[in-house]
């Protein structure tokens, strides 16, 4: 006679609540106005010198984007990285104002950036700085600081296997989720992609692709794909930035830095970032399909296997859709979003 069988008591695991984050000491670093323009007024001409480090961020702007009222620079000092403009008072779109005591010639230094080649984004905003020549008084140069910023939020994706995919904005030391939602152009977004696992074998996370858009719809235009080809962070190669994956510290997390930007031809100041994430068994070898690669005078791996990054200039791995989860050690995949990220002027 068969012994009685005990009933099953297994229950589907419940995703536990994340512990409340402690108060994080944080101070937003606001850029200071750059002292990048000097002018000298002659009897019949104006001499203007403009630093190529126009915004004081350490990044040199394209000289073709700078003009004096539409007039191009007539020279450049390569040692000091200064552009030189020298024109007659009545040229370059100048205007004349007469008062009881003086004549005032007014000029404008214009910075009009174009979208970075092959992308719909800019990393600096247009600017106009007024210059006045007072006769008979010295000139006065004034400028207004540009204050662009970002505003973010994080989203998560829960897979059927009780795996939680997430994207978070982090503090500069990568210790905490960033408590402030404001950034400035020239700063970097620190993004943490992670997968939280419950009752599962150890996993390794990868960021397969990331797209930035002006609205939540990932298929909308304008759109900027800055991670593609199974984990190739192409922003640095496309724009000359220093955006990159950080060296991996934990298998289930991946950090990357992205230099802030705006969409040039969008009336909205908002940006959304959507990433396709995937988790593989931690013991799965790094491969062209499972990698995190950055460009800095060549392709480099966040997992110390630069060889797998060589395909970033062509096509990496399989393009098959609907592949089985068992392929390439894949356990699960999902999408997560940060947004809206607001860039204000």
Automatic annotation (TrEMBL):
Subcellular location(s) of the protein: Secreted, Extracellular space, Extracellular matrix; Zona pellucida; Cell membrane
Membrane topology: Single-pass type I membrane protein
Cell membrane in keyword set: yes
Database matches in PROSITE patterns: ZP_2 (PS51034)
Coiled-coil features, chain-numbered ranges: none
GO cellular component terms, semicolon-separated: egg coat; plasma membrane
Family: Belongs to the ZP domain family. ZPC subfamily.
Protein name, as recorded: Zona pellucida sperm-binding protein 3
